[in-house]
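W.,

You were right to be curious about this one. When I first looked at the sequence I had no strong expectations either way, so I just let the prediction run and decided to look at it fresh. Below is the sequence, 147 residues in total, followed by the output.
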Amino acid sequence: MEKISQRTRDDCVVCVVAMVMEPPYSYERVLEDSKKYQQTDDQGRFVAWWADYLKDEGFEVEHRAMSDPTTFSDLASLPEGTRAMLVFRMPHLKINHIVAIDHRGVIDPQDHPAEYQSVADFQQIFRIEGWQLPYANFWLVRKPNGF
């Protein structure tokens, strides 16, 4: 995956979606395309607009339950030809955040520069930082012709 760092405090989703989709889906294209999708519900809560976007662009998207949310084992053994996105809570910042995952590891767009880290290293950081999984799920993404 191409590594993309955040440009603003709240553009992690745009970065991760662009990483998971790969070129020709650049940060700029995903940012522009995202404007066509509802970002919040009637109560002002953030919605997973990227699921519809990915499907509209021909990707297969599955919201999967994690078999073991304490070890992230699902993320360390993604099915062939897939990528994943994990949404989690950063309580100290009072925000949700998202990272991209493929067979090489995890890319956190808030890192400057964004770099790969192993799932095991990410899991350790996750615990040390006190991040939380509001839902023990992740988004599995497959490109019909493979990545």
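Here's what jumped out at me. The chain has a mean pLDDT of 94. And, maybe more interesting for your project: The longest strand covers residues 82-90.

Coffee later to discuss?

I.
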